[in-house]
Amino acid sequence: MLELKGINVHYGSTQVLWDVSMSVGRGEIVSVMGPNGSGKSTVLKAAMGLKKASSGAVILNGTDLQGKSATTRPRQGMSIVLERRRLFPRMSVRENILLGAFTRPQKDARRAFDEVLDTLPDLKPHLNATAGKLSGGQQQMVAIARGLMADPRVLLMDEPFLGLSPIMVKTVSGIMKSINERGVAILFNEQNAKLSFALSHRGYLLESGRVVLSGSGEEMLDHPEVKRVYLGVGAAAK
Ligand SMILES: Nc1ncnc2c1ncn2[C@@H]1O[C@H](COP(=O)(O)OP(=O)(O)OP(=O)(O)O)[C@@H](O)[C@H]1O
């Protein structure tokens, strides 16, 4: 349903993505894993149109989105949960969530709001709280709720576990699974190989802006290179 084809991205004269091709099928959870600075966030930003690719195509359900602005993409069925949550800290949780429906008529927004709270019931007691006062994990839930308000078929999640406690990591990965079970495909990035590939149906390994490996979550976890470099398996025996 979402395809990135031969994406090249530059910041100024520096190229940071090289011929990146990825796909996300209907109902899949797909991860982009790689070290710091390998270009994971840039992949998601290019998919969402927040960073313009120098060349290549972003295709969503057969429509080429290249050249169409980020603001049109929620209507096409794609939304993004940005890194570090990017909430409006002085606004209430309710206001932050409702912002996610800016492209939808009010009646649809109200219905979407109720559905989103069914998916994330833990937010109900906090709707009138100031977003900036919530814990990191709760803020991540608000960011996910905001992303869901556009009723996406594909949800992009930029480092959804960043800075969360192990318990909140479990909670958020559970939320991702339940969103996915409701028919939403997810493309997310994460630096931790185990977390990335254990949660995803398929994954990509990105190094220095290039896809160097891809496969099912299990294949990725079992790959000798992933094991050696990213899981530290074997190193301890020496
Ligand atoms: N706005 C920007 N201007 C210039 N260079 C940038 C900008 N954003 C990212 N870069 C560079 O592009 C490269 C890829 O960055 P990106 O944030 O996509 O990597 P990442 O894998 O998501 O890293 P991290 O895990 O640290 O978030 C890095 O070398 C980074 O320094």
List its traits.
single chain; BCAA_Transport_ATP-bd_LivF; four-stranded antiparallel beta sheet; 9 helices; High-affinity branched-chain amino acid transport ATP-binding protein LivF; binds adenosine-5'-triphosphate; ATP binding; 238 residues; globular; Rossmann fold; alpha/beta; 34% helix; amino-acid transport
The oligomeric status of these chains comes to single chain
State the helix count: 9
CATH topology: Rossmann fold
CATH homologous superfamily classification: P-loop containing nucleotide triphosphate hydrolases
Radius of gyration: 18 Å
Helicity, in percent? 25-40%
Overall pLDDT level: 91
- Bound ligands, named by name, code or SMILES: adenosine-5'-triphosphate
Extended strand count: 10
The sequence of SSEs as H and E is EEEHEEHEHHHEHEHEEHH
CATH class: Alpha Beta
Task: Tell me the count of domains.
Answer: 1
